[in-house]
Write a structure and sequence with these properties.
2 domains, alpha+beta, 4-stranded antiparallel β-sheet, Aminopeptidase, 6-stranded mixed β-sheet, 18 strands, 384 residues
C-alpha cells in the first residue's frame, strides 16, 4: 500500500487542478443543465476506461453510470461506488465562495459535499491503471443528479444498479476530523397532518365553532410523544400553520414534520401510528399523509465485515480508521435496504457541508485515495 500512497502523493497538484475544474462547474440540484454539464465532464474523463451511460433524470439533470474495464477483474464479484453530482449551492456562489487553497485546505461550493469524494474515486481508478494493480472485483460507478433534493428520480436507478453488488462504497464526506466511516445512518420519513374544523365569529358565535388550531394543538402533543430517544426514534413537528384572523375560530390547520429512526421497522411503526390518529374534538376531522423517504442504513453483519476489511487496509497506511453513526441519510440507505453491505463516508475529510466555510483537508487526500484503492484491489471478504 505504500507504493500506492507514494504514487497518489506525486499526483497532488494534478488532483487539485481536477478538483478545481469540478468545483467551478457549479451544479445546483435545481439547474438541470448545470448538473448535466457536470455529468458530461465526468463522462468525458472516464469514457476511455469503461462503458459510460447517461440517464435522463427529468426534471433534474442526467445521472451517470459507468462499468469500468479492468483487466483480470473476477466476473463473480462487484463493487459499486456511489455518489452524486448535485450540490446545494446556486449558480453564482463562486463569486462569494471561490475555489481557493488556504492553510492546508481547499475551499469552494461542493468541495466537501461531495465533489472531493468523486475526485478521490477518479484518482483511485487512475492509480489502479497506472500501477497495474489487479482489481478484486468488477467496478461500477453511479453518480446521480438529485441526491440533495431527495433522490426521487434516481432511486429506481440506484436500486437497479446496486442489486447483486458485494459492497457499496458511498463517496459522501467522512465523519469528523478523524475521517470516520459511516456504518449506520438513520432512515427518514415525512408527514403532513391537516385538520378541518368549523369556522365561526369568535365574539358573536364562539360556541358554534370548532377550532382546527385547538385540535391541532392536541395532535401536536400526541405526535411529539411518539419520540423515543432511547431507541433513536424522533418525530419533529417542524412547520405549523392555521387559521385566518384573530377573531375567527380557525377552520383549518396544517402540520408538516420529519421522522428519523435507526431501524426501518421503527419508521414503519411511526407511519402506522400517524395514520391511526383520531380527532380529540369529534366536530373536527383530520387527514394524515405519512411515508418513509429513506429506509435506515443498519449496521448489519455484512457492514461489520467490510468495515473490519477497510480497517486492516487503513492500518497498513498508518491510519487508525474508526466508524460512526449519523442521523442524516444518504443514497446508501437505499442500497442497504437491498441487503448490500454499505461503507459510507468514504470520501473527503473536512467540514462545512452546506455552509460558507465548506472545505477539505489536503493532507488527508492521499490516504483516503489509497484506502479506496485497497478496497478495490484487495480480495473481498467472503460472502456470508
Amino acid at each position: 500500500m505504500m507504493e500506492v500512497l507514494s504514487y497518489v502523493r506525486s499526483r497532488e497538484e494534478a488532483w487539485k487542478r481536477m478538483l478545481r475544474e469540478m468545483v467551478e462547474l457549479e451544479s445546483p440540484s435545481d439547474d438541470a443543465a448545470a448538473v448535466t454539464r457536470m455529468a458530461e465532464w465526468v463522462a468525458e474523463r472516464i469514457s476511455s476506461h469503461g462503458r459510460v451511460r447517461l440517464f435522463q433524470g427529468k426534471p433534474y439533470g442526467k445521472h451517470l453510470r459507468c462499468e469500468f474495464k479492468l483487466k483480470g477483474a473476477p466476473v463473480d464479484r462487484r463493487v459499486l461506488a456511489l455518489g452524486h453530482l448535485d450540490t446545494v449551492w446556486p449558480i453564482g456562489t463562486l463569486r462569494e465562495m471561490p475555489f481557493r487553497e488556504e492553510d492546508g485546505r481547499l475551499y469552494g461550493p461542493g468541495v466537501f459535499d461531495m465533489k472531493g469524494g468523486v475526485s478521490f474515486f477518479l484518482m483511485a481508478m487512475e492509480a489502479i491503471r497506472e500501477l497495474g494493480l489487479k482489481p478484486a472485483a468488477r467496478v461500477s460507478l453511479l453518480l446521480v443528479a438529485d441526491e440533495e433534493v431527495g433522490s426521487l428520480n434516481s432511486r429506481p436507478l440506484t436500486e437497479e444498479t446496486a442489486r447483486g453488488a458485494d459492497v457499496a462504497l458511498v463517496l459522501e464526506p467522512a465523519m469528523g476530523a478523524e475521517g470516520k466511516l459511516k456504518t449506520a445512518r438513520k432512515g427518514t420519513g415525512l408527514f403532513r397532518l391537516q385538520v378541518q374544523g368549523r369556522p365561526s365569529h369568535s365574539g358573536i358565535d364562539f360556541e358554534a365553532g370548532a377550532s382546527a388550531v385547538v385540535e391541532m394543538a392536541h395532535q401536536v402533543q400526541t405526535i411529539a410523544g411518539f419520540t423515543q430517544l432511547s431507541r433513536g426514534v424522533t418525530v419533529n413537528p417542524g412547520v405549523l400553520r392555521g387559521g385566518t384572523k384573530a377573531n375567527v375560530v380557525a377552520a383549518e390547520a396544517e402540520l408538516r414534520g420529519d421522522l428519523r429512526f435507526w431501524k426501518t421497522r421503527d419508521g414503519e411503526a411511526l407511519v402506522r401510528k400517524l395514520e391511526r390518529l383520531k380527532p380529540a374534538d369529534k366536530r373536527c376531522s383530520i387527514h394524515v399523509e405519512a411515508k418513509l423517504n429513506r429506509p435506515a442504513l443498519e449496521r448489519t453483519a455484512g457492514v461489520k465485515r467490510y468495515f473490519a476489511h477497510a480497517r486492516k487496509i487503513a492500518a497498513e497506511l498508518g491510519i487508525d480508521l474508526q466508524e460512526a453513526s449519523t442521523g442524516g441519510a444518504s443514497d446508501g440507505n437505499f442500497v442497504a435496504a437491498l441487503g448490500v453491505p454499505v461503507l459510507d463516508g468514504i470520501g473527503a475529510v473536512g467540514d462545512g457541508a452546506h455552509a460558507a466555510h465548506e472545505h477539505i483537508e489536503i493532507h488527508r487526500m492521499p490516504d483516503r485515495v489509497a484506502l479506496l484503492v485497497g478496497l478495490l484491489t484487495r480480495p473481498l471478504p467472503p460472502r456470508a
